[in-house]
Design goal:
Length: 618
């Protein structure tokens, strides 16, 4: 037998509602069930989800602060005042700044942009940047993707005689700043019907208010920040990304065309996954390693040659970022393994919360390293970079389902100089001498808040089907659910008791897995291929003809004009005992293979928890 790496949770929706949607819209029953699982419960909602367009955006003036903001900007435009757009260094902040730059350029404004340096200035408004704005004749500052917590800085701007409009989407603190206008749909007093916009989505609504129309030409810029900041693809976010991708396929922006080309993305087929894993990392690399102004230049340039040059520069920075991440991940994993080995030798249970620190680690990538550790160990994790001169540690946290990272940091607030974030991710700074106590408290909280089962990854499964229930036509219809992302993931389907007809390894290093599967009870059935990228090591844990349960994402494989169903493997399990035949092999070779199998099993998320993957050998 071979256990899955994750706990599978099969979704349950109202079958009666699914039947109504199926009959009213003439759609496939599986598509109807998936709509219900995504919270769609009526025919009008389903029509908007599947076919919504530019006419389904909300009135921007429903957002608190919009009227005074629009009025003040129009006054600045008519008076030729100097406006400064103040953004952030991540992909959401950069795309927000770029969107406002395109808007103000089109309105003939006297404006410039400012993004703080991640290491030298840190996140958000700072008084040094405010002083500079005053010296340079700025009379109106517009923040994007930042400012909702900047109580002192906003007051300082006003003391110097400048006006400030804050646009943000982060959780408002208990005490709010008092700018000329504060636009954030998450304010308790804001009646705006959708609260899940990214920073760039809020900037888009400001643009809509100023122009008196939806600025469709800016949707592809807005799509980048929305996907990159992991916003739920519901309501307006879904429309922003869906319509933005349609425009991106014939992009009017030289920078985006060049970025897609250097990323190896087919412009005509760009999707949300390409934004999240190809475009956004290159935009983020600029702010992580140098200054985000390079990425901003790419998104605002109108010059083809400059766009190509800057895109290539970002691509090189991203490769450097990848190298640094790999190096620091290796160091962090070694530290975790050393601690775990030491705990086992002392007869102690390994820690439930990982805190790893190192001197002069690149602050811009510690969040990525934390994510890598979560992928490997499936424990809430914090990675800190310690400045050896000042003794200050800055870090990023990544969590797992069931553990609220922001609340955990709040319980440790007396140890922290600064912190902020949400359930899944956060940032913080603290003094080196507080790290040990910080780690101790977090482990206590993890022990109190999490059960043994919580340390096994959770995989949400949408439906269980047989292969015969998902012909090519059904898979093609499921594409109507796209774009996929947070809050609207690609459907994951469970297929139970399939016959494993073929196991094949692919790739230069045989790192990918291809399986040929058929329904076990089908007398005559064409095999369906399942592909698992990076899962080649699983091949040695399976025996041919073993009955296997598969969770996969349905897709269409097209080769030489032939289209056929394909499964993108997410997880699998073999519930029956397997027999591995090593007759005729030298004993030393058998021992070597057993040891290799043990290492692969131990490396799976969930190993060492209450439910480790299991393999039974005879």
């Amino acid at each position: 037998m071979l256990e899955s790496k994750a706990r599978w949770r099969l979704g349950a929706g109202d079958e009666a509602v699914a039947g109504q949607l199926c009959d009213a819209l003439g759609i496939d029953p599986l598509l109807a069930r998936l709509l219900v699982l995504r919270g769609v419960s009526s025919v009008p909602e389903a029509e908007q989800f599947l076919s919504g367009g530019s006419g389904h955006f909300h009135d921007p003036f429903l957002m608190e602060g919009m009227e005074p903001a629009v009025s003040r900007i129009r006054s600045a435009l008519s008076g030729g005042e100097k406006i400064r757009v103040y953004g952030d260094y991540d992909a959401d902040g950069v795309s927000s700044t770029a969107l406002m730059a395109h808007l103000l350029r089109g309105l003939g404004a006297n404006f410039d942009t400012y993004i703080p340096h991640r290491v030298k200035e840190g996140y958000g408004l700072n008084k040094g940047a405010v002083d500079l704005a005053k010296e340079q004749g700025v009379s109106l500052i517009i923040t994007v993707d930042t400012g909702v917590s900047a109580v002192e800085e906003v007051a300082y701007i006003q003391e110097l005689g400048m006006d400030v409009i804050v646009t943000d989407h982060h959780e408002p603190p208990g005490t709010l700043p008092q700018p000329l206008a504060l636009i954030n749909p998450k304010q308790e007093t804001c009646p705006y019907p959708f609260k899940g916009l990214a920073g760039v989505g809020v900037a888009l609504k400001l643009a809509q208010g100023l122009l008196g129309r939806l600025p469709e030409e800016l949707l592809e810029i807005a799509a980048i920040g929305t996907v990159a900041d992991l916003m739920p693809l519901h309501d307006e976010n879904r429309l922003i990304v869906k319509l933005g991708l349609e425009r991106m396929r014939k992009s009017a922006y030289p920078g985006l065309r060049a970025l897609m080309d250097v990323s190896g993305v087919d412009r005509s087929a760009v999707n949300a996954t390409h934004i999240g894993f190809s475009l956004a990392p290159r935009i983020n690399a600029s702010g992580r390693l140098e200054h985000a102004s390079t990425a901003l230049k790419l998104l605002v340039t109108e010059d083809e040659a400059e766009a190509v040059s800057v895109a290539e520069e970002l691509d090189l920075l991203n490769k450097e970022r990848q190298f640094i991440v790999d190096e620091l991940t290796g160091l962090a994993k070694a530290a975790v393994q050393e601690e775990q080995d030491g705990a086992l030798k002392r007869g102690e249970t390994p820690k439930n919360f990982l805190v790893v620190s190192g001197e002069t680690w690149n602050v811009g990538v510690v969040g990525i390293v934390a994510s890598r550790l979560v992928d490997t160990y499936y424990r809430p994790t914090i990675v800190l970079s310690v400045d050896p001169d000042t003794g200050m540690a800055k870090g990023s946290a990544r969590s797992i389902a069931g553990f609220d990272m922001y609340q955990a940091l709040t319980h440790c607030a007396d140890l922290l100089d600064h912190y902020g974030g949400h359930q899944a991710a956060a940032g913080m700074s603290l003094r080196r001498e507080n790290i040990a106590e910080f780690e101790r408290r977090l482990n206590v909280l993890a022990g109190e808040w999490l059960s043994a089962e919580d340390f096994v990854p959770l995989l949400a499964v949408d439906a269980e089907c047989s292969l015969s229930e998902v012909p090519l036509e059904c898979i093609e219809e499921l594409e109507k659910l796209a774009p996929f992302g947070v809050g609207n993931p690609a459907p994951k389907i469970l297929f139970s008791g399939l016959r494993l007809d073929e196991i094949r390894l692919m790739g230069r290093e045989r790192q990918h897995l291809k399986l040929v599967l058929t329904d076990a009870d089908a007398e005559i059935a064409a095999g369906v291929e399942a592909v698992g990228f990076g899962k080649g090591w699983l091949g040695s844990l399976m025996t041919p003809q073993a009955p296997v349960d598969i969770v996969g994402e349905l897709s269409v494989n097209e080769w030489n004009g032939v289209r056929k169903p394909q499964l993108m493997l997410q997880d699998l399990r073999i519930p029956a005992l397997q027999v591995f035949d090593w007759r005729g092999k030298p004993a030393a070779r058998v021992v070597e293979e057993l040891a290799a199998l043990g290492e692969r099993l131990a490396a799976l998320p969930g190993s060492g928890s209450a439910r480790p993957p299991a393999l039974v050998l005879f």
